Amino acid sequence: MVDADWHDNAMVTMVHQGGFVRVRKRDLERLTTEVMQLRDFLPKVISRDVLEKVRQGHVVDVVKERIELEREQLQQDYLHLCSRLDAAHCECQREREEKLALRQQLWVSQEQLQQQAEFCTTLGVASCTLLWSVSSKEEVIKDILADRKAEAFLAVAAQTLESFVGQSLDREGKVEQQTSSQEMQFVLALAGIVTNIAAVTCGRDFLSSSAHMLLDTLMQLLGVMKPGVFSKLKVLMLMALYNVSISIKGLKYISESSCLLQLLPSLLQDSDGEVCHCALRLLQSLLLQNNEALPCVGPMLWDRLPLAHLQQLCSSRNPILRQAAEEMLDHLAALGGPWRDTLNGMDKKGPSQGSVTKPEKF
């Protein structure tokens, strides 16, 4: 009895010390036999439902562990997205502040640009108006042409006229003639300077040889401006072309433009009497001074000239316009061709004295 107790205590002591346990071979065999018996009899003792529940519990534990891992991953993703969201909010706030600052700078710049534009417009109007006034003297025109900046000035004048008329056409037909506006005065001054340059012999020669772009622009703009709109500007353009037509080179260049020849008949029917009168004078210059181009010019005008309207102008209350219309009909009848038969059937006054071609200044 004493030996058995000592043996049990020794075994317990060895287990607590973490060493090996000595077991008798007979006891180990008996333990193995009992384990095998439990394996055989356990399914008979425990029902299949219990075993299935145990298996399902194990599966649930595995699924739970996987879900826990996924939850931890989602939590990390959530924290990462929150961090990115905070960074995006900070970036958005910074960009919003920068945008507000840039908008403020843009507003200030626009105000400054508007002030500068108004100043430049005022300065341009004053300068061009003064230049228009002094350009009525031939000596001034010679001084202008003697400078190498004349071509650049005329190019700027052409671009300015084209831009002004183009912006007016973009207003969907709501064009209002604001003759007192600075822009209109600026454009009229430019056109007046060109007209006065063309009124001098050296100026006509210069325009005929070195300012074709300006002449083309004038003829083109006369075609796009609607009747009754910008009449003063039309008058200046027509008189500039008329002055250029006095020179041989200028007359030849203008006569070769089919655009102007197709345009003149419609200008003759403009509601403004001064525009109609200037168109008559230009047409007279083209028909009466250019015998070489008459065979080409005549056929283009035979079917376009509003002879009936010219006959009505002979009864106009405006004596200058009435005289110009009478002279035009007389000259057309003298030229012969298809006009003679038509004009012979109209009631006309006697032939008037031919007008002398003189340059016009404004």
Automatic annotation (TrEMBL):
Region (Disordered): 343-362
PANTHER family documented for this protein: HEAT SHOCK FACTOR 2-BINDING PROTEIN
Organism: Scleropages formosus
Phylogenetic classification of the source organism: Eukaryota, Metazoa, Chordata, Craniata, Vertebrata
InterPro entries assigned: ARM-like, ARM-type_fold, HSF2BP
The protein, known as: Heat shock transcription factor 2 binding protein
Coiled coil feature spans: none
A cellular-component GO term for this protein: cytosol
